[in-house]
Design brief:
0% of the residues lie in helices and 62% in strands. The protein has 166 residues and is mainly β. The chain has an 8-stranded antiparallel sheet, with no helix packed on it. β7 and β8 form a beta hairpin.
């Protein structure tokens, strides 16, 4: 399950709020790879030595933005042979968003597939809201509802500031 709480190494993770400089009716994409010495998902330590890769696409259609992507990660299970656990994951996701003045809203879907442990496969829908405060600082919150395996709600709230590096 993708790490939404921490950016790892050179990872350029897909944003839960579609934002950017794309003009209307323009398709933009991003390919990213990364490594981390551990894989943490929602404050749970999943394993060691995470290698990940992904692709994200976004399409602006005027007032509505569409996005989709895939993320794959593989890691070492530190528990060894003590119990069976997944060591790889494929996330497929899509969302649709819009802006209401300074507030951005998005609704989306995420499918978590574990190729080596399919009993853990699950699905979530999410609702995300964000607002630009000042000096490029953003306040955002996303509610994820797992309606499949875990039947639970998780809320992630963040304050972010991004910098462009060339």
């Amino acid at each position: 399950m993708r790490n939404y709480s921490k950016i790892v190494g050179a990872l350029a993770a897909a944003s839960t709020l579609v934002a950017g400089s794309a003009s209307a009716n323009e398709l933009v994409g991003d390919v990213h790879v990364g490594y981390s010495n551990m894989y943490e998902f929602r404050f749970y330590d999943v394993g060691d030595s995470l290698f990940e890769a992904g692709v994200d696409l976004a399409y602006e259609t005027g007032p509505v933005s569409l996005n989709a992507g895939a993320w794959y990660g593989g890691w070492d299970n530190r528990n060894g042979a003590l119990f069976a656990a997944p060591t790889s994951e494929l996330d497929l996701y899509a969302g649709i968003g819009t802006d209401f003045g300074p507030v951005s809203l998005e609704v989306g879907y995420i499918y978590y597939a574990f190729p080596d442990f399919s009993a853990a496969d699950t699905q979530e829908i999410y609702l995300s809201a964000g607002v630009d405060l000042f000096w490029g600082i953003e306040l955002g919150s996303t509610a994820f509802w797992d309606f499949d395996l875990y039947d639970g709600l998780y809320v992630d709230t963040s304050v972010t500031k991004s910098f462009m590096l060339n």
